[in-house]
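Notes from hallway chat w/ T.B., transcribed later so I don't forget. T.B. wanted the structure written out for a chain they're using in a teaching module, and asked if we could keep both sequence and structure tokens in one place. Agreed to drop them here.
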Amino acid sequence: MDAACTVEQDEIRRAVREVVTKRRAADGVRAAVRTPAGYDAALWGALAGRLGLSGLALPEEYGGAGCGVTELALAGEELGRTLAPSPLFATAVLAAPLLLRLGTDGQRAALLPRVASGDLTAALAVPGAALGAALGLTGDNGGAWAGGGRAGGVQATAATGSWRLYGQVDQVLDGHSAGLLLVAAHTGGFARSRTLLFLVRGEAPGLVRTRRTALDETRARARLELRDVEAELLGEGAGDDVLPALADVGERAAAVLAAEAVGAADEALARTLGHVKEREQFGRPVGSFQAVKHRLADVYVAVCAARSAAYYAAWAAGAAVPPGLEGVTPEPVAGIALACALDALRTAASEAVQLHGGIGFTWEHDAHLFFKRASGDELLFGPAHRLRAYAAERAGLFTGQADAVASARVAV
């Protein structure tokens, strides 16, 4: 398999890097996260309007570019280098694919062109604190969060000509500023409980949105309180395809997240290399010491491995099959790629803090921003060991061993 990028993919990478480099300074990031929206509106206008990233993976009939997960991942890698906050992930990676897959013809025609143009931002709201569970990254997403008669989350009740939602969701990426919310809610009572997705306008009566304090400020999140809020059912309402759709979106989201983490890790490593070449100790650059070289070599190997895994995951999650691999059905590997990338980012950020010396521990330095991104993504979508455990379970890695143990016990 040729992992080289096409001319078009290289152009996407170059264009995104050119735009975000102009706002690369950490002061720009800190200023952006302190705005009411939590991101730089001018940067988002350039990314969505000028570059068309919000519609990059949407079909051309809805105003998109008709690209795939690989192109989104390449854009995410460049955004990860600067940790630039934007609603791109919540809108284009989480919400838009669900609108495309589950929405009716009318819903797609009304909403997707606005998403593609950047005029409408969207967010996915699922009950529970762990988004990774709902996306099928850390376990079967038909588990407790999806209902089954359990209390909590969001409950949906059919009303005359509409639906009414009541409940609370605590961790919604960009939920405080999104113009459209896709809310997962339980309906059907104990006997026939099922999970459906509903469309809620950002300013709907009865909806209270509160931006929450987060470890990683570059990923803004909100608490939603729904008090008899009017909602529109997404799709025809069968409900059987909601959980598979969420799991499919989870594969794509994990691939993009892995690429973002790789971009951030690569940038943290580059900044650390630049520092150890300039900082002198005992009359020589710190980077000339063998112990420092070994530590940074380990980070470099980890970043390279994570990049390979992220690129493969993006290809596997997309629909396009490269020439010569027709008929090959790639296994879902995005979870393990995300675990690899999160570990690489945590390692690169930790070494950045350590090797920058005393200044690396201060709030004024950029190193803590990378460390917070690694920790924040693990809290939202991981942790890494659970991503690996579920990937091993899906692959049947320990099935043979378990059968052998059971046979041995019977024999005894």
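Follow-up for T.B.: The chain has 13 helices and nine strands. Might be a good example for the class.
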